[in-house]
Predict the 3D structure of the following.
Amino acid sequence: MNQYTGLADCYDRLIDQTIYDRFCGRICALFHQYGIDDGLVLELCCGTGTLARLLSQQGYEMIGCDASEEMLSVAREKCADLPVPPVWICQQADELDLYGTVRAAVCCLDSVNYFTGLRELKEAFRRVSLFLEPGGLFLFDVKSREMFRRLGGTSSIQEEDGLFCAWQYGFDSRSGYAQHQVDLFRKQGEQYIRFTEWHEQRAYSRETLTRALEQAGLRLKGVFADYTGTRAREETGRLLFAAQKL
């Protein structure tokens, strides 16, 4: 798997950066609801560090963890001017190992769907729980099975100055596995250089995720429709889960 290697230094040009403001607003609202107004927060699968930067600006001390050294390199540069830059660690989610506990943890942009093995999912949740303080909050979002189903068989393109990106999506409804291929063309001089990444994800039901949380010592507090604050009535679109350590 070569996920988020060639994409790293152009990722922010391909992702709508305004969504992070919405993410940050909803995350902070839930933090305040549970009395987490400051302290140390972990962002699991932090990518290029946009959300970590926003949360840092809200007064939280951040740890950013990601398995891609290339993405962390971008994140480190992006957050270098902060008064207290995040601590960056390069680790797989199911191998998370911190020096101490955190008050909360977040994992956004369907990163949990990249835990394609149930054992990997459970171990990642167990690791998060291990380093959460009692009463600490774990927030994460997932793409629902219905969202994957709608994407399956479709393709999309994005074009920026000197950059062309094509996405092709596939989904196997029986197994719940999803795949998407990313073909990236970057202009270098008078030529375009092609780079291809192959991504695999998995759709999980609310029941499966709830059981995995419970087995990790985390109690589900709510499932929301995206980052709107509205309780999810059905498993469609992006779902935001909030769980608390017992």
In short: The chain is about 25% helix and 35% strand.
